[in-house]
Design a protein that fits this description.
By secondary structure, this protein is mainly α. It folds into two domains: 38-84, Arc Repressor Mutant, subunit A; 87-224. It has nine helices and two strands, in the order ββααααααααα. The chain has helices at residues 36-58, 65-72, 76-82, 86-113, 119-131, 134-146, 150-176, 181-205, 211-226; strands at 2-3, 6-7. Strands 1-2 form a two-stranded antiparallel ribbon. β1 and β2 (6-7) form a beta hairpin. α5 packs parallel to α8. The longest helix is centred in the middle third of the chain and has 28 residues, at 86-113. The protein starts with a strand and ends in a 14-residue tail after the last helix.
Length: 240
């Protein structure tokens, strides 16, 4: 190594890090330990994630809290500490399902606002994503098995809180795009109602091959419904 015109030879490599004064070196100490609140949040997130997976797989009837702890990779004691009551964990899992689906729906609405021509198609896709998927089946299962008991009542409250607000957000997006408010509201409510009905049909029979055809026909009907009355074509007279 050359320093100020002189040559020094050494049999061992020289580390530039060793040439930096110790007080100027960046600290390489141990990473700070997580706080109790952070550890608690992490454990609860693992348990909720495990509960969601089991509810989708086995529904409420086959749900066992001991299995949740195993799936989540935490001790049974930790599970009991954070969620001592089974239904508390179940409802926390259901709310997480709704929070995620609600966020996804609002993101889709914001994207559709930038493409008004795809607004109807995006709304139909949103109804399919939720009502034809496992998220809705988990919610429906809990509303049915819970009935008028606290479990069922809370499941219904969560449904109203998160899904009704999605419907309102879609109605607002349609009216902002210039669609007549009443037609927009009817179109969205009918779309969601139809998709819920097809979801029950799927649950009963598993038949879904004809769903794309039905949604395609409904989209054509909905487009006609959304037109202002002044722009609609007059109905053809019936043949005599």
């Amino acid at each position: 190594m050359r320093i100020e015109g002189e040559i020094f030879q050494t049999n061992s490599p020289i580390s530039f890090h060793s040439m930096i004064p110790s007080r100027a070196r960046p600290s390489m100490g141990p990473r700070p330990r997580r706080t109790q609140a952070e550890r608690t949040a992490s454990t609860q997130q693992k348990l909720v994630k495990g509960a969601i997976a089991l509810l989708k797989q086995k529904r409420y009837a086959g749900f066992r809290v001991a299995e949740v702890a195993k799936v989540a990779g935490v001790s049974r004691g930790a599970q009991t500490h954070h969620f001592p009551v089974k239904d508390a964990l179940v409802l926390q899992a259901l709310e997480k399902v709704y929070i995620d689906s609600h966020r996804k729906a609002l993101e889709r609405i914001e994207k559709a606002r930038a493409e008004p021509g795809r607004l109807l198609q995006a709304m139909i896709e949103d109804s399919q994503d939720f009502f034809l998927g496992e998220d809705f089946y988990v919610a429906l299962d809990l509303m049915m098995v819970g009935g008028d008991q606290p479990l069922g009542q809370e499941a219904k409250r969560l449904s109203r809180e998160y899904r009704v607000s999605v419907e309102k957000a879609w109605i607002e997006a349609f009216t902002e795009a210039g669609y007549p408010p009443l037609q927009a509201e009817d179109c969205i409510h009918l779309t969601f109602a139809m998709t819920r009905g097809l979801s029950v049909r799927k649950l009963m029979s598993g038949e879904v091959a004809h769903f794309p055809r039905l949604f395609s026909r409904w989209e054509a009907i909905a487009e006609e419904m959304l037109q202002p009355a002044a722009k609609k074509r007059p109905a053809k007279p019936l043949a005599t």
